[in-house]
Amino acid sequence: MTNQSADGSTEEDEIPQPPVPQNMFQRLQAKVKATFGLKNNPDRKPKALFILGEENPLRKLARRVVTWEPFEHVVLMTIIANCIVLALEEHLPNDDKTMLALELEKTENYFMAIFCVECTMKIIALGLVLHKGSYLRSFWNIMDFTVVVTGYVQILWCGDEIYSSELLSG
Q1: Closest alpha carbon to 148 in 78, 48, 101, 100
Q2: For 26-39, what is each residue's pLDDT tens digit?
Q3: Residue 92 is inside which H or E element, if any?
C-alpha cells in the first residue's frame, strides 16, 4: 500500500519488523516465540521453567538459599573435595582397584547428589535459559550443568552396577 505525500512523492507503508536479536539467547527466545506464536507482553514477568513466577514461595526459597553465602562455600568445598578424591584415584591394569580406590568410589554418588541439588536449586531460582540472568547464561553454570548431565549419562549409559541393577529391577 502506498501513500502520497504533499510533495507528490509516494512512500510505502512499512510493516513494523521486530528488532533483530543481538545474542544467541535472544535468537533462541525469538525462535521459541515465533514457533509458539507468543507475543511480547511487557507486563508478563519471567517464570522459571514456565511455571514458577517471581512470587512463587518455592522460587523465593530457592533464590534465598542460592544467594546465601554459606551455600556457595559448601559448593566450593564440595568441588575441592571431589578434586582431591579424583586425584587419589589410582588406575591399575586389568581394572584392578586398591582398597582405597574402592572406598573412594563410594563417594561419587554423594558428590553427584550435591551437584544435582545445586543445579536444580539454581534452575528453580534463576530460570533455565530464556530470560535475562537465567541459569544457563552464566559460563560457570553451563560448566556445572555439563558436569551433572555427563555424570548422569555415565551412570545410565556405562552401566554403573548399583544403578543399572536398580533401574532394571524397578
Answers
A1: 78
A2: 777 778 777 776 66
A3: none
**C-alpha cell, 56:** 512463587
For residues 130 and 51, the answer to whether their CB atoms sit within 8 Å is no
Residue with cell 517464570: 47
Q: Supply angle C-alpha 108, 157, 166, rounded to 5.
A: 70
Rounded Cα distance between 120 and 117, Å, is 5
Q: How far apart are CA 52 and CA 48, in angstroms?
A: 5
User: Residue 110: pLDDT above 70?
Assistant: yes
CB 94 within 8 A of CB 154: no
Q: Does residue 170 have a pLDDT over 50?
A: no
What is the spatial distance between Cα 101 and Cα 93, in angstroms, rounded to a whole number?
A: 13
What are the tens digits of pLDDT across the range 65-82? 999 999 999 999 999 999
